Amino acid sequence: MTDKSHDPNQMTGAAMIVRALIDHGVTDIFGYPGGAVLPIYDEIFQQSEVQHILVRHEQGAGHAAEGYARSTGKPGVALVTSGPGATNMVTPLTDALMDSIPLVCISGQVPTHLIGNDAFQECDTVGITRPCTKHNWLVRDVNDLAKVLHEAFYVATSGRPGPVLVDVPKDVQFATGTYHPPRKSDVHRSYAPRVKGDATQIRKAVSLLAGAKRPVIYSGGGVINSGPEATRLLRELVEVTGFPITSTLMGLGAYPASGKNWLGMLGMHGTYEANMTMHDCDVMLCVGARFDDRITGRVDAFSPGSKKIHIDIDPSSINKNIRVDVPIIGDCGNILGDILQVFKAEAKKPDIKNWWQQIAQWRARNSLYYKKSSDVILPQHAIQSLFEATRGKDTYITTEVGQHQMWAAQFYGFEEPHRWMTSGGLGTMGYGLPAAVGVQVAHPDSLVIDIAGDASVQMTMQEMSTAVQYELPIKIFILNNQYMGMVRQWQQLLHGNRLSHSYSEALPDFVKLAEAYGAVGLQVHKPGDLDGAIKEMISVKRPVLFDCRVAALENCFPMIPSGKAHNEMLLPEQANDEATAKAFAGGKALV
Amino acid sequence: MNQPASAYFIEERHDPNETHTLAVLVQNEPGVLARVIGLFSGRGYNIESLTVSETEAQKHLSRITIVTTGTPMVIAQIKNQLDRMIPVYQVVDMTQTRRSIERELAMVKVRGQGEHRVEALRLADAFRARVIDATTESFVFEITGNTDKINQFIDLMRPLGLVEVSRTGVAAIGRGPEGM
């Protein structure tokens, strides 16, 4: 027997967890202590390399870790206890799965001998989180822990990124075993995401692009996930080909909103020109997006005349909703590089002058038009003012979910990737405030703004306390219309204007609430006061709740109505009662 | 209603359903079967038959054979969704990619007397089913074959006093010298 007492790799499971975090370059984690993670918290207490941010609810830890991940490109880490700690993580895990965000959650579990006994704070964490993680593990032996932790980081960050969970029973945290640094053999041999695209498919894609008369590039969150090189290559491809480009909600910022080929966002609340270009194009290049139902509208009328090229790292995204002609499986950065190389060598910029003329006509419809008022603040105007006031600043935007989210996407121009954090796939109200906490932890000197709604923001309001504790000067910009605006909009359009439970009765006084938390509260009612108040909000170096009272009944347009195709959008000037009623006729049944 | 009435509505595809047998090679670790089954229930896919067993103990490999139905697009989705699971090594569509042999084993209990009993035994012989248990009033037959053959045998036993059936589900392997 060799003496292991001096072996630096002999340590407790709890120590291994902290050591693995350090080995993976983790500097900040978000969590909440509890009985089943006390040994880990004891280790955290005795070191200074990993900073722990104490949230007020585990859901907040998860969304904060998501915000951290999306604004840095690094994995976010959350630490929660067993039972309710783990079940409170289900929403952020699902959110991260839907939006392909790398998230590593470590959960405590009751000791192995109590598993299955209905012990105090026991739940089947791996069972509950199996469908909402990319993969998860229950570690029963401390000697497996290092391998599992390293694999967890690899799985979360490679291929199509996503959330993973490692469930560690308390006795495994106490037990001593052998740690090893990350190594290749830690990963399942069965897991090998494909990176490089097929050369024949790339040639086919280039020949389609080169011959296009009415092309469009439709990019998504995959470009941002792939990293800065993918963004650079996407911009170069737009430059080299001269093609128009639109993006999903998730992909905003990959191509700058000020770029001359930018059409705006597409989909249900996308611009008229983006959706018309998609509908009438002859060649569509989809990069790192997945033909989500909010993008396609009615699938049998989706871009009927086009040849479609689809670049995606996940083979299951191919032909899931829309049949494509040239699928290319692999990392979009890698594939964009190959496409550019072939294109530059063998093709020349197609002449698409006529196509741009057509697009200019669609643009002239000014689909984001709204009527400003001098009495009441229009929510669109509030976002535009916020954008103007923060333009050129080092700004990160998060959102909650609803009308304010769509207005933010429409009216805030993103110039760079990783600057826009929103819950796209799952649509999680309450995402934005804790996400802003996570973003601010990653970027302490930047301006971090959560564009919120009065209903959403109350779902995770308790994290204001976290922001105050850690002196995170996040700005919560609430478009307060005293409604769950998007719910109300749908009730108006589809349910006979019966506003069932969509009115925010008994709203808190957000200014007093901010003060109660030890933050700063601001309120503005008049359009004339808006710019000054925004300026004040930005200049305050503390967390701010900004209660922006906006027009109560404003709705979000343009919109693809029920059962309609991209070329049947409802534009703001057409959205009078009669046209709306007609456009949505019969829509109620199947929404 | 002729027209889908929601932007979120994805119309039913009217392609005909096909039945496919998938062989899935997985790492034999806790929860792997739950993952596979959860995928089917979570995404609304059908399982007609499911057979699981460790096939290479030293490498901790298990083989799951699934018979499923769906439109060609759904079948392709099922294969892609299975393939992207972390512990899944390989998914082979035995119906599509190669000529394959499928077998199932069933144990069939039949109770009866007189002419019925004689007839049951005669049919069992014709189907090459073996008697693996007998009393003066019952038989348990063991029968191996493809699903159709077993279904047919069970149908024939029904009027002769069928009591109980236990089936293994389908196992499949490709013809020829090549492995999976």
UniProtKB/TrEMBL annotation, chain B:
Q: Would the keyword Transferase turn up in this protein's UniProt record?
A: yes
What is the catalytic activity of this protein? 2 pyruvate + H(+) = (2S)-2-acetolactate + CO2
Task: Kindly give the InterPro entries that the UniProt entry links to this protein.
Answer: Acetalactate_synth_ssu (IPR004789), Acetolactate_synth/TF_NikR_C (IPR027271), Acetolactate_synth_ssu_C (IPR019455), ACT-like_dom_sf (IPR045865), ACT_dom (IPR002912), AHAS_ACT (IPR039557), AHAS_small-like_ACT (IPR054480)
Source organism superkingdom: Bacteria
The keyword Cell membrane belongs to this UniProt entry's keyword annotation: no
Which residue ranges does the record assign to the ACT domain? 21-96
One Gene Ontology MF term: acetolactate synthase activity
Protein name per its UniProtKB record: Acetolactate synthase small subunit
Q: Which organism is it from?
A: Bradyrhizobium nitroreducens
